[in-house]
Amino acid sequence: MKTIRFTVNGNEVAVSSPPTKPLLDVLREELDLTGSKECCGKGECGSCTVMINGSSVCSCLVLVGQVENETVITAEGVGLAQNMDVLQQAFIDEGATQCGYCTPGFIVSAKSFLNQIEHVPTEEEVKTALGGNLCRCTGYTKIIKAVQSAAKLSITQQGVKN
Amino acid sequence: MKSKAKKDVLNEEQKLKWIGKSVKRIDGPEKVTGEQKYKTDYSYSNMVWGKVLRAKYPFAKIKSIDTVKAEAHPDVICVLTYKDIPGFNGFGIVTPDQPVLCEDVVRCTADAVALVAAETVEAADEALDLIEVDYEVLEPVTDVENAMLQGAPKLHKDGNIHSHVTIKNGDIDAGFDEADYIFEHTFYSPRQMHAFIETEGGWGRMEEDGSLVIECPGQYGHRDKLQIARALALNPERIHVYSSPNGGGFGGKDEITVQIYLALLAMNTGGRPVKIHLSREESVIAGIKRHPFKVTVKTGAKKDGTLVANKVRAVADTGAYASLGGAVIALAIEHASGPYTIPNVDMEGFCVYTNNGIAGAFRGFGVNQVCVGIETHIDMLAEKTGLDPIEIRKKNAYKQGDISSLGHVVKSSVGTIETLDKAAACDLWKNRDYYKNQVSEPWKKRGVAVATSFHGVGMGIGTPDYGAATIELLQDGKFKVGVAIEEIGTGNGTVYAQVAAECLKCDINRIVVVQGDTKQTLDSGTISASRSTYTGGRAIATAAPNMINLLTEEAANLLGVSVSEIELAYDRLVDAHDHTRFVTYEEIYESLHDKHRSKRVEGHFYLPKEKEELKNSGGAPHHLYGYMTHVVLVEVDTLTGQTDVIKVVAIPDVGKVLNPQGLEGQTEGGAVMGIGYTLYEDVLIEDGYHKTKNFTDYIIPTIRETPEIETIPVESNEESGPFGAKGIAEVVMIPIIPAIMSAIYDATGARVYHLPATPERVYQAIQESKPQSLISR
Ligand code: FES
Ligand code: FES
């Protein structure tokens, strides 16, 4: 057991855990952040995706010791029901979630991708960015639309602000 | 009375406020933020971990089970075997032939032999290793045809043929005699995995009042409850199952998954809640799969494109246990001659036990496997005769009131011809030569093809099939709509809210939907068989007038007028003569509450059935079917055999579309699942052992494989359905399968009869289709 400190969704946390425990299990079991799911445990499905210092990674493959002093963001950190991110709203508006089990992972991957660009991505770009996330329900078409429409909306909103 | 009400609904169609609109999912916010709690997301202090010991061999006798060492592990709470089952040691939706915990024989590697509860997952795993099972290994039965032979080792005491169904109509020999062309081929289909992203898992725990709670995703909580009660010898009234939401189901959570294990453990942990959550590897081995079929189809047709005879023999590998295998093969045979009027058919199907895991319900339910025969043969006929493949299908398609290939009069709505007309008129079909020329590389070839199919809605004859809904007025003026049918991703809860808001003439935000909760809702059947919109919707539409009566009577009391003078206005009840006088739902609640009157009403509904069952058919025909045509464009890499689906046009007839966005969600998800079935997916089992382990070697389509998908709905009005709706969830992945197969042929001149059409198989077929002079060097 070791005390490991890091930031999750803007809050500093200290967990006492074997440093070799997967970050995913720590988030779910110690911090009750259950938006991130385990589906394959092998880095194949992306349903456990979180951002570490802004980049999206599979939290099932990261050991909690590796995120000491780092910044982690989960789907809950992108936005909660009362203050949803444009991306989350776009997923609802476009019908991009069905059973929803994969959705938090998609939200994190897509958010991390959108944070890195300042244009409306082409379909090919979205497909490349989200290639590591599996969804069995939607057929992905509406997910692609949701990411594009969120990008469009953020750009307009930024334009208004500037 | 009834028909007048229907007319009113139709007349009011223009005025519909919620029906037919792309109402956003009511559970959207919690899904996109990760706040939605699935069953395995819950946590309880004081919990323990449950694990299942699976069989080491696909077929073996158990000589002894020794749990002493496991029990001695300091962190182990209990170890359970068959001896600890208080009730009936078996489960299975139709035939309960699967042991909860095996006693003297294991029949597949999915079999459970013992259960463990321990303080940690690690301790539970260690305990599994400490259980000593002495086996006498037997030779596994892995081939369906061999399994059916006389001398084959028997998996079950009645032999290896679980069921045999037949449908015959007309005179098959005379039919082939009059045929100008006869096509005969054998098709093999894959063992597709549901691959829901949420693996099986949940909680078992005892309430303080001694009742047992099972929180576990499932597709029919009320039936799960009965299966648990039977195994535990408990009063079902003392069991509460919470089975919604599901992180995907597709049929794979229709059967019991881990519910009975959770229940057994929960009763042996001294009141501590127990959690089981299968790893993907365990889910691959333990979970049911789609039945692999071997289907031989012989089709006879005339020069003018008239189909005159169809003979089918289908053999389904159900693995070690029946689950819904009997019903799957029955539905397959019912659909094996397509939505056509072939006068002479002779079809039979066998559901056969082997030691290859377990197969059960899966979206499409047998129709996926058989539709390839008739559809491929129609395309071959088109090529031989030079007739248009859409015209041949139209010529043979039955219309409402016609006699189907099964020999029964189809009384419900039929949209096949309209879907085919839309296919003929769609851009991809009209301009197919243009699209085929747009190859991305010179060595790639493109093809376009069309296929049509259908799928029964609801259960066959002889299986209970009912819906029930409750509507309760709440203190804050909202309506709690209870329908047991679970949310598995389809958005049925949103449709239920739409139907309720429409019928009650209120804002949709007033509707609170409760699903998958055996304590709060009435048994309303499964979330399967494309029945949930139709059944749940009708049940709500039946309950709503009862609520309106309740509201109206109380409003009349409060306003001091007669019931006939009360009008249901939007979100309130008004005095018909003076609209400024009204009562709110909150006021009605208060008034009913003060009088200690019930604020809850019920609505019940039985799905319409055909009166006469076709002899030996296992429940055919259905009364109601959904219809669908797909047009696809594929591109095949002739150097590698790799096939990409580029475009899909999905043309469903599902009756009235209640939520266009939800419909597209189904057509898009179904198309992509159909692509996976046709091109990539197969759980490989060798000698009874799974070679496929996880998503590392089971490839489902990713976002990169997603084609452009266009949905063009045909809206036939199904008189019996809620606002004219039928069902959708299964047919959306069916005709795309033969359409892709024929598009590969259109592109390359090669046909693949063994799915999935992997690059190796397509490449091989291309080589074989080349004229000899080209391949011999
Ligand atoms: S659970 Fe982490 S990638 Fe699948
Ligand atoms: S919405 Fe169900 S897996 Fe993506």
Low-confidence stretches of chain A: none
Tally of contiguous helical segments of chain A = 6
The CATH superfamily of the largest domain in chain A turns out to be: [2Fe-2S]-binding domain
CATH topology of the largest domain in chain B: Aldehyde Oxidoreductase, domain 4
Bulk shape of chain B? globular
Rounded to the nearest angstrom, the distance between the terminal CA atoms of chain B is 78 Å
- Overall radius of gyration of chain B: 27 Å
Helix content of chain B: 25-40%
Chain-averaged pLDDT of chain B: 96
In short:
The complex is a heterodimer of chains A (162) and B (777). With 162 residues, chain A is of the alpha+beta class.
Structure, described:
Chain A has helices at residues 23-30, 75-78, 86-94, 103-115, 123-129, 141-161, and strands spanning 2-8, 11-17, 49-52, 55-58, 71-73. With 162 residues, chain A is α+β, with helices and mostly antiparallel strands. Chain A folds into 2 domains: 2-78, Beta-grasp domain (Ubiquitin-like (UB roll), Roll); 81-161, Orthogonal Bundle (DNA polymerase, domain 1), CATH 1.10.150. Chain A has a 5-stranded mixed β-sheet with strand order 2-1-5-3-4, sandwiched between helices. Chain B has 777 residues and is of the alpha+beta class. Chain B has 3 domains: 2-36 and 466-606, Aldehyde oxidase/xanthine dehydrogenase, molybdopterin binding domain (Aldehyde Oxidoreductase, domain 4); 39-138 and 200-277, Aldehyde Oxidoreductase, domain 3 (Alpha-Beta Complex), CATH 3.90.1170.50; 293-397 and 413-460 and 612-775, Aldehyde Oxidoreductase, domain 4 (2-Layer Sandwich), CATH 3.30.365.10. Helix content of chain B is 29%, strand content 24%. Chain B is built from 22 helices and 28 strands. The interface between A and B is large, with 57 and 58 residues. The structure holds FE2/S2 (inorganic) cluster (2 copies). One FE2/S2 (inorganic) cluster sits between chains A (97-103, 135-138) and B (197, 248, 489). One FE2/S2 (inorganic) cluster binds at residues 38-41, 43-48, 58, 60 of chain A.
